[in-house]
């Protein structure tokens, strides 16, 4: 399952990231925020506008706003 489909509040671990689907600068920013294989994440909130952007993703003690297209590039497994 990809991160954009993870149910609200469910804990998961990122098992793979399709870096080739992202612009280099975006990929670098996501890595700097700790969004890489092995990271434990959960979806804290979904936006209310069309497409439900952005997603609020919890990574450790930090909450990060993430576009759905970025979350779609991350494969997760429930933790």
From TrEMBL:
For molecular function, the Gene Ontology terms on record are: transition metal ion binding
Species for this entry: Novosphingobium flavum
Q: Does the keyword Glycoprotein apply?
A: no
Q: Which residues form the Ferrous iron transporter FeoA-like domain?
A: 1-78
Task: Specify the superkingdom.
Answer: Bacteria
SMART domains on file: FeoA
- Gene3D superfamilies documented for this protein: 2.30.30.90
Q: What is this protein called?
A: Ferrous iron transport protein A
User: What keywords is this UniProt entry annotated with?
Assistant: Iron
């Amino acid at each position: 399952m990809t991160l954009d489909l993870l149910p609200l509040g469910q804990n998961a671990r990122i098992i793979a990231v399709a870096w080739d689907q992202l612009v280099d600068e975006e990929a670098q920013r996501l890595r700097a925020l700790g969004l890489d294989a092995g990271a434990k994440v959960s979806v804290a909130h979904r936006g209310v506008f069309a497409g439900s952007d952005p997603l609020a993703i919890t990574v450790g003690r930090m909450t990060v706003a993430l576009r759905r297209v970025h979350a779609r590039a991350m494969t997760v497994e429930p933790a």
